[in-house]
Amino acid sequence: MTHADFLRGTDNSTSERANAHLDLRGTPCPINFVRTKLRLEKMPHGSLLEVWLDPGEPIEQVPDSLTMEGYQVEKIDERQDFFCLLVRRPATS
User: Fold this and answer.
1) Which of 18, 24, 25, 83 is 20 to 30 A from 57, comparing alpha carbons?
2) Helix (H, G, I), strand (E, B) or coil at 73
3) Whole-angstrom Cα distance, residue 35 to residue 46?
């Protein structure tokens, strides 16, 4: 995946509410948090990002780190082999 691809996101989002999707399965900590934060910063205020994360350290660390940075984690769904995280960029900076 190129830098442009991850900024653009993908079209295989499973949430109809999400404005963008980021598949970070196989991406280690803290790179998955950094990529999520960078993607959120490029999105309009108030928009929703769907992030796919591996079990273990990624799902344990990324949601807490995003919350500490001021992002709103709206939902965490456990899927068959990964977790689906919905996180919203604050409406104002």
Assistant:
1) 18
2) strand
3) 18
CATH of the domain at 64: 3.30.110.40
Residue 13's nearest CA partner among 41, 65, 48, 44 is 48
H/E stretch holding 78 reads strand 72-78
If you ran DSSP here, which 8-state letter would residue 79 be given?
Answer: -
Residue 81 has a pLDDT of: 95
Query: Could you tell me the residue range of the domain that residue 49 belongs to?
Result: 3-88
> What is the rounded CA–CA span in Å between residue 91 and residue 56?
30
pTM, two decimals, is: 0.82
Q: Is residue 48 part of a domain?
A: yes
